[in-house]
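ENTRY TYPE: protein
CONTENTS: sequence, structure tokens:
***
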Amino acid sequence: MSTIGYDVTNFPMCWVESIQAHIHLLPVTKIQFEQFLCDRPSPQFDQEWYDGILQLNERVTPKNVSATNYWKAFITGVQPEEARVFAEWCSEAHDEEYVLPTRHEWFEAYDAVKREAPFAFSDLDDERLTTRCRQLLKKLDTVAPRQQGSGRTRADQMLMRQGVMEWVETETDKMPWGAYGQPNRKFYGNLYNLDAGQPWFPNDYGQRLFSHGFRLLRRAL
């Protein structure tokens, strides 16, 4: 199984042996989500909907990403069921299964990559990367903060820390969705211990949360 894979938008995914799946190298970006919006026009995701999303966390181009705004590159404010529609689109386009991770899968992936060295750009297939994806990866590698007190790991590179909160399926009826992540406090000042292994649960599942995005798994078939 290849260590690096690519989704339908040609953004990279990382193979994690412990969960037998590829997981997005980054939280899903606005670049990827906009490709979905263009490819699958729908009243559910019309211009008014997207304008409302951008009011919660405005857009930034890869060229203008900096240490004080890089979280704007990621799609946030989406609800879990909306993220599932994006996953279905990826599945249809690739004829593979893309899903939101369960709480156990997300944490297993995090626990694995937090001990791994970051990928080098030479590990990526330059012919597969779009220009904007390459620009964004290089900018994030420069501006995203490092973990205090230790060397930089793949979890830092993947922005599982210092990224956004990420929806996960909890597999329970009472609280079906939780979130993992440890965002930059300038973006979302939630005091949350990611390494404790417990997801954060929203008070209101109907509310759009500016801090919440997602990444997908692609399971081995």
